Amino acid sequence: MTILSTAHHRWPLLSSCLRRRFCSAKRLVSGEPEAPVVRTAIPGPNSLRLKNELSEIQNSDSVQFFADYKKSIGNYIADVDGNMLLDVYSQIASIPLGYNHPDLMEAVESTDMRTMFINRPALGVYPPKDHVQSLRSSLLAVAPPGMKNVTTMMCGSCSNENAFKAAFIWYRTKQRGGKEPTADDMRSSMQNQPPGSPQLSVLSFHGSFHGRTMACLSCTHSKAIHKVDMPALDWPVAPFPRYKYPLDQHTDYNRNEDQQCLAEVQQLIEMSNQRGRDVAAVLVEPIQAEGGDNFASKEFFTDLQKLTKQAGAAFIVDEVQTGCGGTGKMWAHEHWELPESPDLVTFSKKMYLGGFYFKPEFYVKQGYRIFNTWLGDPSKLALLDVTLRIIRRDNLLKNTQIAGRTLLAGLQALEEKYPALVHSARGLGTFCAITCRDVTTRDSILTRMRNCGINMGGCGEASIRFRPMLTFQTCHAEIILDRLSAVLKEF
Amino acid sequence: MTILSTAHHRWPLLSSCLRRRFCSAKRLVSGEPEAPVVRTAIPGPNSLRLKNELSEIQNSDSVQFFADYKKSIGNYIADVDGNMLLDVYSQIASIPLGYNHPDLMEAVESTDMRTMFINRPALGVYPPKDHVQSLRSSLLAVAPPGMKNVTTMMCGSCSNENAFKAAFIWYRTKQRGGKEPTADDMRSSMQNQPPGSPQLSVLSFHGSFHGRTMACLSCTHSKAIHKVDMPALDWPVAPFPRYKYPLDQHTDYNRNEDQQCLAEVQQLIEMSNQRGRDVAAVLVEPIQAEGGDNFASKEFFTDLQKLTKQAGAAFIVDEVQTGCGGTGKMWAHEHWELPESPDLVTFSKKMYLGGFYFKPEFYVKQGYRIFNTWLGDPSKLALLDVTLRIIRRDNLLKNTQIAGRTLLAGLQALEEKYPALVHSARGLGTFCAITCRDVTTRDSILTRMRNCGINMGGCGEASIRFRPMLTFQTCHAEIILDRLSAVLKEF
């Protein structure tokens, strides 16, 4: 089994001497503090007061603290109580370059940018004159290997919902032998009835997260509180491999996981098709992020693509959290080296706007079928354009690979030192995670880390995920590992 | 029957003399041309070339022309072929103040604004320090009468999907006697099965448009091409009144329409509840816009709210297209003078970001249930804040009432002059429409109007809708009426 996670490389914790050398390496963002600054418990009194005020308007339970974005810089987020935290959660993995990147700040001063901010077009009807050029220099310049088509959307859920729609149209068109919908299709669709509203389904995986609008939520299976009380579509759900770590010590077990999951996918598709709910698409994350940073092997995904194709379904890869460089490649699925591209690849978060790439077979032939008022936002596309230039100029994918190696090696050293507390260190690039012995320990570690100036996020039942910006460097990894080591020592 | 549309007021076409006086009235946006400038057929050669290039990337059938937003000003949109069109479609009703409004242009120069553009937070987790203040001075300052709670979202579909979710949570919580979900609810929801994933439904109306993500699309019944080939939820759909115009000549017929539709709503709710698909919410637009600018009376909506309440369902008013002043009031449902506010009011488009207002009963008690990564965009909220100040300062609601009266009176004069071509002139504020004898005539009128410099939109089967900005004045209405009169003469 080719190991997707680099978790099998074992590095010793860097010596203090070496660490100092790394820390003095050229910083990718100037103006960052040398280390976190903590003045109060976090959330501090100002955050607590504001959170209380916000709760009069809407539920504010999910608020961690209020931020001062003007004072935030690079990998550091300032809060409203004078604290400056090293941020390895980056707004749920949605900040590519860090806060107030000087090149972005300069870019938004231009009249072109300001014009775009205040004149938001209906992109599908009156696109701006440079729209084609803008798509080419941004989204198409970083398209997944082999993909040349893209449609823009607003957010991750919207991107997935529309990728499903493209798959449904493709599937029904195949069933009609390439013909357009019949008069009966059109008429019955207006009543939400078959054949116009067919009983098609999307197969998803346990532990997955694909968003929260209804079709997405029916494919999301990470936490019950996201789903409970909401009507859902009765679509098939397959198990996703759950590996044992270190990977190189559990090769047989993990390979068996792959095979069992694939067999179940196959069986679920057959069963669903037999009961008249054809599986039009199989939807998968390269790494199940919200669900616990669950990795799977290159072989699993390669076989999944093959199996999906044989079943006549579309293979949709949801790169909303994994896309845009965090794994050390632009798209996480590039690590799989598939024989052909996925059918549809969705994105959002660090890309500023949503959307999906698609193969030519998924090009919708009629207008207004994949459509909405805004279809994205050209001002976000312009920010992406600048951001991608900085990623190339500063070699940020390479930087992410290097920083990720230090981070993962450090996590592995910590799991060796504290095996009763943490285990299963894993990662690709800086997209790293470690699992705690239980949820109480995990939550306690997150709170303690925050109070010593490190902002991190949890995922799954008891995991900690690292989701830093692309300007996260080895020196930042060292600070985190030092403090995490100190926190683990306290238990 | 209290007539909601002002269509019963009959004004003569203004004399040329009076018209000149209006045209010389103070312009709300400086720098606009005196009249449209047309140099080529529209779309012109540059638009056609760009449209062809775009079609290599994605379907571009819906593109009307490519715009030059830097050259656009106020009510006028510039295209890439040197044409300058008077725009009464305003990006599918989503531009509040017109293009490049000088106050907006100035506002986005500030460091605060630029900081917001490049640092987009996860609003539900790390809101910016001025977020509470920003909600108060923007969204809450214009909240529908009696409403004090609001949640921000990204777009119209997202707002509706989340309003449904708030209604489902409220409904299930009522069923549990106020208790939180049980362990069985939680467990079964992870499998998309009842009781955790209940068979609840949302009742919508034929002719409605509520967006295009799956739950929204199941409530959308305006055009089959939006729906066909997509799986849909088997939710009840009621008829919406279809009035005869002029209203004052068809009082009995129209009142009967109201009563028949209300009776059917009642019956559909009972049937749906009986077959175990409880109607948790009734969803309605104040004016069915995409579906043909179908108006209904104040009595209809008042009775609908009452009936919905008696059935134990939530009353959701979708103000995505009608909200933000186009009808001469901030919210179209204010015209109904309801005894109490709707339960949920959704918005987007001219508000820059999406969201929904809700009554205290719909305040969700647990965090992360109405949630997503971005939960809107504070940079859009900041634009809204400036925009609302300009609406107040320049008295734009009053302006819209005045300009709307001229527009509607002119349309009525035209239907009297060309009864074989157009009929049923109707409107509230500048939210006006007229219906053509058939779709061919409608499309031909739209094309001819565009080629004489007026950008308009169609809706429903054969209607033309007017959806100008709030800076649309009597002088603009006069230009449109003049040209429409000339176009109708050609038939």
Automatic annotation (TrEMBL), chains A, B:
<protein>
    <recommendedName>
        <fullName>(S)-3-amino-2-methylpropionate transaminase</fullName>
        <ecNumber>2.6.1.19</ecNumber>
        <ecNumber>2.6.1.22</ecNumber>
    </recommendedName>
</protein>
<keyword id="KW-0663">Pyridoxal phosphate</keyword>
<dbReference type="GO" id="GO:0005739">
    <property type="term" value="C:mitochondrion"/>
</dbReference>
<dbReference type="Pfam" id="PF00202">
    <property type="entry name" value="Aminotran_3"/>
</dbReference>
<dbReference type="GO" id="GO:0047298">
    <property type="term" value="F:(S)-3-amino-2-methylpropionate transaminase activity"/>
</dbReference>
<dbReference type="InterPro" id="IPR015424">
    <property type="entry name" value="PyrdxlP-dep_Trfase"/>
</dbReference>
<dbReference type="InterPro" id="IPR015421">
    <property type="entry name" value="PyrdxlP-dep_Trfase_major"/>
</dbReference>
<dbReference type="GO" id="GO:0034386">
    <property type="term" value="F:4-aminobutyrate:2-oxoglutarate transaminase activity"/>
</dbReference>
<keyword id="KW-0808">Transferase</keyword>
<feature type="compositionally biased region" description="Basic and acidic residues">
    <location>
        <begin position="178"/>
        <end position="187"/>
    </location>
</feature>
<dbReference type="GO" id="GO:0030170">
    <property type="term" value="F:pyridoxal phosphate binding"/>
</dbReference>
<dbReference type="InterPro" id="IPR005814">
    <property type="entry name" value="Aminotrans_3"/>
</dbReference>
<feature type="compositionally biased region" description="Polar residues">
    <location>
        <begin position="188"/>
        <end position="198"/>
    </location>
</feature>
<dbReference type="InterPro" id="IPR015422">
    <property type="entry name" value="PyrdxlP-dep_Trfase_small"/>
</dbReference>
<keyword id="KW-0032">Aminotransferase</keyword>
<comment type="similarity">
    <text>Belongs to the class-III pyridoxal-phosphate-dependent aminotransferase family.</text>
</comment>
<dbReference type="InterPro" id="IPR004631">
    <property type="entry name" value="4NH2But_aminotransferase_euk"/>
</dbReference>
<feature type="region of interest" description="Disordered">
    <location>
        <begin position="178"/>
        <end position="198"/>
    </location>
</feature>
<dbReference type="GO" id="GO:0009450">
    <property type="term" value="P:gamma-aminobutyric acid catabolic process"/>
</dbReference>
